[in-house]
Design brief:
Layout: E1 2-7, H1 14-30, E2 36-42, H2 48-52, E3 58-62, H3 67-82, E4 91-94, E5 99-100, H4 105-114, E6 119-126, H5 133-142, E7 157-160, H6 161-166, H7 177-187, E8 192-202, H8 213-222
Parallel strand pairs: 1-2, 1-4, 2-3, 6-8
Antiparallel strand pairs: 4-7, 5-8, 6-7
Length: about 230
């Protein structure tokens, strides 16, 4: 199993991300699954590298300043480490450096994979500490457990290795590389499952590391409560 985390100047939140991943990886390994975590430092100028060095992860450095390129490099390295005989048996889980995954994140995706899913679209929720109280209340009122909307978020996305390869992998673009991958997978007839069982906590900031992405969604919604 591969886990890929792109990082661009995330010294404030990276330790939280990697700490949460440590727990999720531990749960998967106790279930007998080998996991390779690759952290991709993309044009970082802060202390992200030093923070990543404190965790049991493989670190790759690139200077693309494009999240698609960072994810692609991370997947390539993870697959090299796993050296899979059959990509159909490999699962690639993706999250972001400003996010924290639950302990069942990997085991839940593996359960769905074994049930026949090729792509898992997990839900994310913003850190309510970053939102105005009215905004947090609005989020709770409009998001209902058990009814995942099926949106594509790179912070909570899993894909079977063979489908990833057939779909062309992540494209080296500044944003929406996750959406492009899922669209390509759907075009191939991949089985896509939406789930909110292992929801990921992500930053509620309104200025993200890409022009669009989740921060743009939060920013658009937050304008109602300014």
């Amino acid at each position: 199993m591969a886990v890929v985390v792109p990082v661009h100047d995330e010294q404030e939140l990276l330790a939280r991300c990697l700490t949460s991943l440590t727990a999720a990886v531990g749960a998967a390994e106790r279930a007998g699954v080998r996991v390779e975590v690759v952290t991709v430092l993309d044009a970082c100028t802060d202390r992200s590298a030093a923070i990543a060095d404190g965790f049991d992860v493989t670190v790759v450095e690139v200077s693309a300043a494009r999240v698609g390129a960072a994810r692609r490099a991370g997947v390539a390295e993870a697959l090299r480490l796993l050296d899979p005989v059959d990509l159909g048996d490999v699962w690639i889980a993706n999250t972001d450096a400003d996010s924290a995954v639950p302990a069942n994140w990997l085991t839940h995706q593996l359960t769905l994979m074994r049930a026949g899913s090729d792509v898992v679209l997990g839900t994310v929720r913003p850190d309510f500490a970053d939102l105005a109280p009215a905004h947090a209340a609005y989020w709770r009122a409009t998001h209902h457990r058990g009814r995942p909307p099926g949106n594509t978020h790179g912070a909570n996305l899993g894909v079977r290795g063979s489908v990833y390869r057939a779909a062309g992998g992540f494209t080296e673009v500044p944003e929406h590389e996750d959406v492009r991958l899922v669209e390509a997978a759907r075009a191939l007839g991949a089985v896509v499952t939406a789930s909110d069982v292992a929801e990921v906590l992500t930053s509620g900031r309104v200025e993200g590391r890409t022009p669009g992405g989740y921060a743009a969604f939060v920013r658009a919604t937050a304008a109602q409560f300014a």
